[in-house]
């Protein structure tokens, strides 16, 4: 997805003084610090979680401890000793007290023994569950055909997984991400680049790979294995730091992504009312998150838990700019949101008299902002452009002009808000004489807006348009798209099906008229800072104006018909994308498809290199190619991908001060086709049978490479696939713009389906 843009040709330096021995110390120190951060994170999670004790003892429960204690005490009074003398041994080591009788000491000893036994059973059950979750044979089995081994394994998982888990209940039971064997990664890498290179180019790359595998590779691999034993995840912290936080380019377009509203219906045309319901729905979700009442994510059609760590920073989170490296600020709670409208910033409180504000009250707050005639202060209207352009100028401006006075206070209000809301002055959606162009404009607006009316540093920005349409723009460093998509699904479903509107389109319910109005933020932005803002705006506008977007629904068929052809829908779409790109460019290209690694603790993503040698052998091997893609996806999910392993090897090489021509070349290759699917995760919230129009159109992101395409797609129900395609006008290779690749994609969908039907 959008992270592919950040991962290409990233570089950093480590410069400890002295000889190579000290460089090795630098690598060891970084491995040590990674583990330290990991353990510190676990401690803070336990300390800050509302239900930390309940989660900490899962799959047991506090009531099971009481049952255990009661059972042991009953056996003591029945003159039975299930402890085989251990209770007596504990009693012997207890200090004699004048306040406790012999019977009291016995009870205390039984209490200590039963508690120890209870904790031992918890550790045992967790260890067994972790060992069970290390088995991944199930994912490689043909759909609908489950082996006896997997059936037994699945039954054991259900037994040891416990009942009524909370959001973070499985975190301690998830296995660590394994480090793939160096030989396997080299082999898979060479397979992935074979269709992209001539014989001479491939022989040269194979020579570099063999040399790396024989010389430098084993040394770098040793550090990664050491880190995998010590830290929770050998990839994630380095991925966050070096791919995201050290990236100096604009977040807008390059990293941030968006999610779209319903496109065929608008629950209300009243902007303030829609904002009131959406914000209230998000606050309900935040409350469920705080209480850990969100159900843990599990893999489709099974009971295998996925890592939930990324949910922790969904709200109250901001990416803070720094010179050379950004940081992520996350607060335990925030009682306000920041709102932007017509060039002004406001603070809206979320609580009144100790309770959450109702939708009707939030609507009144937003209406006051819309009715406020106050003009923007000097420099205020375009202030958000600082978050849209390059990071270092924003970091220096923040240090120079926002360290004191009203600027510091107002910026702190924005950065410490639960999230950011833009009351957009434009109208979006399927409107006007050309609905297709209107949908493209809607996509571009969600991706970058006017470049100054979003706060791209916030974990997410809720955007509500003048005609009631909405969307969401999310920053990428703190989490991946499925987390934001989960929130967005809940938000729009709650808005449409639970909260609703009255006959006039206003939010339902009563309101307290004594609630104070929103607070307009004050700024004192000097001319020098205004000049920096205008420079950032110029950079951001140039980037935004260079983006071509094409969003469209494909209604001719969907996953229902594809599955009848005994082919994976995702593999089918990837084959279509490859064929469309080949018809457009007359060549294949390095292709990025995002896959999740959340089967492991603190897992994020891995790359599926969708273009393989099987894909090059045209349609006669279509099913072979589809199965090959499925296997690549499965390997990526189970920790046997290529690119994250190579990325971490490169990081270690930089800490060791060693240069690898192989790694340098591999990590500088451009992803000309970047693709991502974000499936609907909570189908139970929607009724596609009776209300097929009440579902999100999906989301999209900017092109990863200046000469490439970004393609996002979402499979909806049985008969609909929504696509979001982006590229750059300035590219000589994509000069045909998105409309042409759209036409080629539509042709490819039909061609490949026809071939499958003929072979079935």
From TrEMBL:
Molecular function in Gene Ontology: carnitine O-palmitoyltransferase activity
One Pfam family hit: CPT_N
GO terms, biological process: carnitine metabolic process; fatty acid beta-oxidation; long-chain fatty acid transport
Pathway per the UniProt entry: Lipid metabolism; fatty acid beta-oxidation
Active site: 476
Domain Carnitine O-palmitoyltransferase N-terminal: 1-47
Mode of membrane association: Multi-pass membrane protein
Keyword Repeat set for record: no
Catalytic reaction annotation: (R)-carnitine + hexadecanoyl-CoA = O-hexadecanoyl-(R)-carnitine + CoA
Subcellular location: Mitochondrion outer membrane
Alphabetical UniProt keywords: Acyltransferase, Fatty acid metabolism, Lipid metabolism, Membrane, Mitochondrion, Transferase, Transmembrane, Transmembrane helix, Transport
EC number: 2.3.1.21
Main location per the UniProt record: mitochondrion
Gene Ontology CC terms: mitochondrial outer membrane
Gene3D superfamilies the UniProt entry points to: 6.10.250.1760, Chloramphenicol acetyltransferase-like domain, Choline/Carnitine o-acyltransferase, domain 2
Domain Choline/carnitine acyltransferase as annotated: residue spans: 177-735
PANTHER family: CARNITINE O-ACYLTRANSFERASE, CARNITINE O-PALMITOYLTRANSFERASE 1, BRAIN ISOFORM
Family: Belongs to the carnitine/choline acetyltransferase family.
Protein name: carnitine O-palmitoyltransferase
